[in-house]
Amino acid sequence: MSLPQSNRRLGSFVHKNQSRWTRLEELIHQFRRGSLSKRELDELGFLYRKVAGHLAYAQTYFPQHDVTRRLNELTLNAHNVLYGSVKKRRFPKLLRFFTRDFPLLFHERIPFFLIAFSLFAVGALLAFFLTLGDPRLASLFLPLGMAENIDPKAGPAGEWNHSIVSSQIMVNNIQVAFLCFAFGALLGVGTVWMLLYNGMLIGALAALFHRVGESYTFWAHIWPHGVTELTAIFIAGGAGLSLAYSFFVPGELTRGESFKREGKVTIQLMMGVIPLFVIAALIEGFLTPAPWPPWTKYLLALSTLILLFFYFGSAWIRKEATPSENPTYSS
Q1: What is the sign of the dihedral through the CA atoms of 121, 150, 137 and 166?
Q2: From CA 200, how far away is CA 173, in angstroms rounded?
Q3: Are the CB atoms for 119 and 199 separated by under 8 Å?
Q4: What's the pTM value of the predicted model, to 2 decimals?
Q5: Torsion region of 155: left, alpha or beta (phi above 0 gives left; psi -120 to 50 gives alpha)
Q6: pLDDT in tens, 21-77
Q7: Which residues does 135 contact at the CB level (< 8 Å), separation at least 6?
């Protein structure tokens, strides 16, 4: 390539892209002086990708020119600003989700949470009274062979391998929760069944222990982890029901758009319940089988209930105190 042609190419390249380089430098300086708005941060990312392409072009056609060294420095600075800020913001964003956004999502979908709770309660009461009247009916509500292997007089606790039991319980309950949610995509029929079935399982077990006078001990081994565990399952079930409702009652949107929007929200709810299952599994694996008197287990259950009320309630109180800062999740 002749020198005049190379100079024309360079001049055209600089003239065409100079404004973008200058704007990127301004955004970098502005970030270092204070902070950028979301729109400006998005613009910085867009310009960074453009300038990175310009750098590749300059390295090919003007490898020794000052403009190439300038673009290399500019690209490096933009990379450090952009990805450094993302890294710094990642943990606060996650912390905000669990301390504010997730509890607020719970409050916005609380009618579906109450429906999920009601379905579970209906199943539990139905199985309890049927099994109480005829213990042979327990086999209708419990997994195959489980009723025959239960000895209520021996108590619900046995020999525990704490680490194994804790991990198994956590995986099983997360699976139940995700099935409740996933079945919401199948118009909610599976969600309703999962909630009823899990209620019937608990109700049948409770009846078997009640018949032999072991209710106090039975519930002492259920409530410590059950408060957190069932809360998470009801939230997951509520998410599935909410998803199905968005399909049947789309409002002014099309069914597809309504379903898509609600799916984005309910997936966040599912992310939020995972730590609840981890906590429940740790309690069930390590504290439930501890050789403590039953009253201490009830006290532990009450403590977890109070903490859950505080966790979900405090975010709602803060939201009411600062209505202008409320996030919008429905769009």
Answers
A1: positive
A2: 16
A3: yes
A4: 0.69
A5: left
A6: 998 898 888 887 766 777 887 888 888 889 888 888 888 888 888 888 888 898 888
A7: 207, 208, 211
